[in-house]
Amino acid sequence: MHATRTPAQAKAWIESQGKSVKDFAEENHLDLHTTYQVLAGTKKGKRGEAHRAAVVLGIKQGSEQ
């Protein structure tokens, strides 16, 4: 089990891979606007697409299904 990231750490992690948020969202089949909202902290990722985005970004632990 790995430690979770903060939204700021998740954004830095994406950038450290040389990717844009748009590229990351497309590669992981995530809604771009929801991904930005999770990274900004306006959506907490409690359910649905926001939860899936938070899990893929490493902000929350859970199943990526």
Q: What's the layout of helices and strands?
A:
Blueprint: H1 7-16, H2 21-27, H3 32-40, H4 48-57
Please give a structural write-up.
By secondary structure, the chain is mainly α. It has one domain (7-57). It is 55% helix and 0% strand. It has four helices and no strands. The longest helix is centred in the N-terminal third of the chain and has 10 residues, at 7-16. Keywords: DNA-binding. GO terms for molecular function: DNA binding. It comes from Pseudomonas leptonychotis.
Helix content: 55-70%
Strand content: under 5%
Number of domains: 1
Query: In total, how many beta strands?
Result: 0
Q: Mean of the pLDDT scores?
A: 92
Order of helices and strands: HHHH
- CA gyration radius, whole angstroms: 10 Å
**Helix tally?**
4
Shape: globular
Would you identify the regions where 5 or more consecutive residues have pLDDT less than 50? none
Secondary-structure-based class equals: mainly alpha
Q: What kind of sheet is the major sheet?
A: none
Cα(first) to Cα(last) distance is 17 Å
